[in-house]
Structures are given as C-alpha cells and as structure tokens.
Hints:
Elements: H1 2-26, E1 38-39, H2 45-48, H3 56-68, H4 74-77, H5 85-91, E2 94-95, E3 101-103
Antiparallel strand pairs: 1-3, 2-3
Amino acid sequence: MQRKSIVILASFLLAACLAAPLMAQMKGHTGGLGEARIHFNTASAANLAKAPGITPAIADAIVKYRDEKPIKSADDLLNVPGITKDVLKEINPQVGTEGDLFTVPRAGEELEDDGDVPLAPSKC
C-alpha cells in the first residue's frame, strides 16, 4: 500500500514538473522567474509603452530607431530621441541568455500579444 502511494505521488510530481513550463508559456511568461519580458527589437509600441520610463512617444521612437538599426546594447537606447541616462536607469534594460535586450512591464501592466516573434538562431 505504501509503495502504491509513493508511485502515485511520484507520478503527480512528474506531471506537475512537465506541465509547469507549458502553463507559464501559455500565460505569456518568458522570464526566469515568470516575469513577462518586453524585447526592444520585437515588441510593439503599445507594449514598449508599458515599461517603466517609456512614454508612448519614446515607444514610437524606439520602433522607428530599431527599424533602421537593431538595438544591440543598452547604450544603443541612448541614441533614441527622448531617452536620457536617467530614463535609461528607469527602463533598466537587461540582457537575456541569447543576447537579446529586454525590460519588464510596470507592476500591474498586462502585455498585448505581439504575434509570432522570430526566435533567435541556436548558438549550439
């Protein structure tokens, strides 16, 4: 009887571990701790404007800038009209595992679906 309980418990834990990443992805989570990410090179202006320090005008300027030249580093954001060093500190850009630059939305902000975002090529 005890062995059967252990098998059932182990099966449940395995199922939960396998389902957790799928459930997080369905909710739009892509961050390490389940935070939603706003990627500077792919996010819509509407989603960019949900980040700390980014107004709708700055969001539009980011989209215009990245259409001409991809944003590769936090320093590139200083070339965007309206982004000063103080604004950059507030935005708090971070670098993901694939070298992608992102930030997170303000607390309580829900991101819109940006559609199919191209995946970064494998570095293997």
